[in-house]
Amino acid sequence: MIFFILLLLFSLIPSIWNLLQAYYYKVGIREIVEESDGKERFYSIIVAIRNESVETIRGLVENLSSLDYENYEVIIVSDDDEEKFKRIVEEVKFPPNFKVIRREKPEGGKAGALNLGCNLAKGDYLVFLDADGRVDKNFLRKLNEKEFDAAAFRISIYNDETTVQKYYKEFTEKVMVSLFKGRYLLGLPIFPNGSAFAIKRKVLFMVGLWKEGVITEDLELGIRLFLHGVKVKYFHDIVVYSMAPFTLYDLYKQIERWSYGSAQLLLFSLKMIKRGIKGLEGFLYAQQWGIYPLYVLTILVFDGLEFLLRINQLLLLLPLFIYGISVGIYALSLGQKEGDIKVVFTVVNASVSGYLKGVLKIPYKWRVTPKEKGEEKRTLNLLSLPFLFLALVNALAFYWIASLILLGFGLIELLV
Fold first, then answer.
1. Which of 163, 136, 183, 162 is nearest to 27 (CA)?
2. Residue 127: beta bridge partners?
3. CB-based contact 299:286 (threshold 8 Å)
4. By three-state DSSP, how is residue 352 classified?
């Protein structure tokens, strides 16, 4: 009975999160009305770069140098080697209000580079973008009309060449409506994306800048802002255009990184629960990459080990029914048009892999998502072995559906 209770619990948690997201999407259709300020401020746009192509940096500079706003500077902090940095400086023409700095000792990861940029910044307001980020000409002028201590912007994908990118683009738009706009309208905590974020300089320094050595430094900062009582606003009408991963491999590595970072912050995010219902919801948001595959993994494991756990197969139907209904409601609410089972399978598998690695504290090597289309890569991953083992156990027990699903998990993990 204890195993059935656990299975029921592990079906309820992701089911509740699925239903909440469906509700958020419905709420997110409404419009947001914000107060205007209009007083002209000085902004510092900070971008951390590493292993980016010259063309990507050139595009960034051309985009940010064309803003119809005068009081701003751009600080680019490079963690590239000396040869790569020299090439960037020689081949890209930087306007006078651009500063390009190379860190000789790139300690603290991306957060360390951002902190250097913050310490060099002159602006009272800091804006953070990624190297592939692009904004409209009136980006700062629109932002200057807003009153905020910290703010997240809408992300929109500007490349949709591959099947992966088409799916990613549509899904990103829906996520911005549900997990950002909808949650913001309900007064829930917003956790900014580090590639589309602005904050008052004094607020960022008050909470201690970016946490160095953390994989998802933006999520960590969002949690810290919430714990300090800083409200992060969301501006759906201010857009940052970003690139989607080209291949399944690129998508896998990106999701795996987010999931790893989520698991890395598991204990820290638990502190939010002390803040009541909003804090509990914030915890669910922060740990969503562990929630998504929670039920699927549990039922596969329990089903595969049925001969040891002595679970009545009929008891598995209730949790399955609950979870299935929530998935159906979620899917119908979002109405995703672009679909590819390989993409869905890759996302689930990457979240499992990344989250397990984070929980087990397996060292993680940062990888920059490529900005140009390349060939699909394959690497051997030892986490495929448990999936393949459970697939074999299920097959021996004649649970063919579970076996095939686990086999799929294992093969994708093995191949990507």
1. 183
2. 45, 198
3. no
4. helix
Q: Are 259 and 292 in contact (CB under 8 A)?
A: no
- 9 C-beta neighbours (distance < 10 Å), count: 13
Tell me the pLDDT of the chain (416 aa) as tens digits: 676 677 778 889 999 999 999 999 999 988 776 666 667 899 999 999 999 999 999 999 999 999 999 999 999 999 999 999 999 999 999 999 999 999 998 889 999 999 999 999 999 999 999 999 999 999 999 999 999 999 999 999 999 888 889 999 999 999 999 999 999 999 999 999 999 999 999 999 999 999 999 999 999 999 999 999 999 999 999 999 999 998 888 888 899 999 999 999 999 999 999 999 999 999 999 999 999 877 766 766 666 565 555 666 566 667 778 888 988 898 888 887 776 777 877 887 788 888 988 988 988 877 777 766 665 554 445 445 555 666 666 565 555 555 666 566 556 555 55
Picking from 177, 165, 308, the residue whose alpha carbon sits closest to that of residue 242 is 165
- Tell which residue, 384, 389, 415, 414, has the closest CA to residue 403: 389
What is d(CA 339, CA 167) in angstroms, rounded to the nearest whole number? Answer: 6
Query: Is-contact 272 282, C-beta < 8 A?
Result: yes
The residues pairing with 215 across neighbouring beta strands, listed in sequence order, are none
| Residues paired with 36 in a beta bridge | 146
- Tell me which H or E stretch contains 238: strand 232-242
Collapse the DSSP code of 384 into the 3-class scheme (helix H, G, I; strand E, B; otherwise coil) and give the result. helix
Kindly report the number of other CB atoms within 10 A of residue 404's CB atom. 13
211 three-class SS: coil
Residues 6+ away with beta carbon under 8 Å from 226: 189, 191, 232, 272, 275, 279, 282
Q: Cβ contacts of residue 139 below 8 Å, gap of 6+? A: 67, 69, 238
Write the single-letter amino acid at 413.
E
**Cα(350)–Cα(346) distance, rounded to whole angstroms?**
6
What number of CA atoms fall less than 13 Å from residue 367's CA on the CB side? 17
Total-model pTM: 0.88
Cα gap 64→25, rounded to integer Å: 32
